[in-house]
Amino acid sequence: MPEIPGVEGLSQGQRLDVSVLNQAYPGILAGVEVEDGQVVLVTGSGKRFVYDDGRTKTAREALDDPDMEDMLAQTYEPGPLREDPPAGHHPGRRRVTAFFQEVYGHDAGEVSAACRPVRFLDRTVLFNAKNGAADALERVSARLAGLVARDPVLRQVLYPVVGTFCWRTIAGTKRLSMHSLAIAVDVNPGRNPYWRHHRRPSDMLARRRDFPKEVVEAFEAEGFIWGGKWVEYDVMHFEYRPELLIKFRETR
Predict the structure, then answer these.
(1) pLDDT band at residue 142 using 50, 70 and 90 as cut-offs
(2) Residue 90's pLDDT is what?
(3) Are residues 126 and 155 in the same domain?
(4) For position 193, what pLDDT does the model report?
(5) Upstream peptide bond of 242 is cis (omega within 30 degrees of 0)
(6) 73 and 51 in contact (C-beta within 8 Å)?
């Protein structure tokens, strides 16, 4: 894939992040500019995103008001979960929401128009067709169908499927949920815990490990991250974030 114009003067780390975004969201970035000493990513529509705003942020500030560097700073590691995440580790929860709105739709009407039905496990859900998200979910569904056919017990983990397209903010915040952009799916919320609804059990690592690794691998293979790898665990939640999987591969 050709480099984005303007990356020549960037540091190695900055060039890597721009390359990762260009691979994950082809056609979105049109160029890179330096403005008052700040690196700015420019989209095809002319929207401008500061790569590094230069602020020293608390953990809360990095969640509530991240720049593009913050968004890509924490490593999402695919594969088996070895231990509970350390405090503040939640790769993928730092989101520059306006960037994703450039990709998937700026409001509920735009997102709705971009959605198409996808047959996923026991039901048909709406998922965003832009940037290959719906296609990726279909491939996950095919992988999971094979797993469930071989091991019907997995139905207890995955069914019912809920929460694909729903325009809303994240509970307790003013941040837009990625379900609003129809790029996330939740599986069996009654079984799979979410930190706001469950007091953290002492056996949380065991609860994370209890979630079948082959299911997580099926999602990760198609560009989805799993909320079970966040310290604020969201074991039911999978979100289409190909940039994080690409960056992991590019740095190994």
Answers:
(1) very high
(2) 95
(3) yes
(4) 75
(5) no
(6) no
Number of compact structural domains in the chain: 2
* Confidence at 240, pLDDT banded by 50, 70, 90: very high
How much is the average pLDDT of 33-62? Answer: 94
Residue-range definition of the domain harbouring residue 187: 81-250
- What is the reported pTM? 0.96
**Over the Cα atoms of the chain, what is R_g?**
18
Same domain, 147 and 182: yes
Tokens of 186: 């939740």
Cβ-based neighbour number of residue 251 at 10 Å:
10
Both tokens assigned to 104: 């998937």
47-64: average pLDDT: 95
Identify whether residues 63 and 43 lie together within a single domain: yes
Which one of 32, 53, 72 terminates a domain?
72
Tell me whether residue 24 is in a domain: yes
**Per-residue confidence (pLDDT) for residue 97, from 0 to 100:** 97
Q: Is residue 194 part of a domain?
A: yes
2 domain-assigned: no
DSSP state of 234: B
- Give, to the nearest 10 degrees, the angle between helix 213-220 and helix 133-150: 150
Quickly tell me which residue has 């325009």 as its tokens. 167
Task: Please check the confidence at residue 195 and state whether its pLDDT lies above 80.
Answer: no
Sign of CA dihedral 210, 212, 213, 219: negative
Shared domain for 211 and 104, answered yes or no, is yes
* Token pair in block for residue 103: 């990709």
Task: Check: CB of residue 120 under 8 Å from CB of residue 137.
Answer: yes
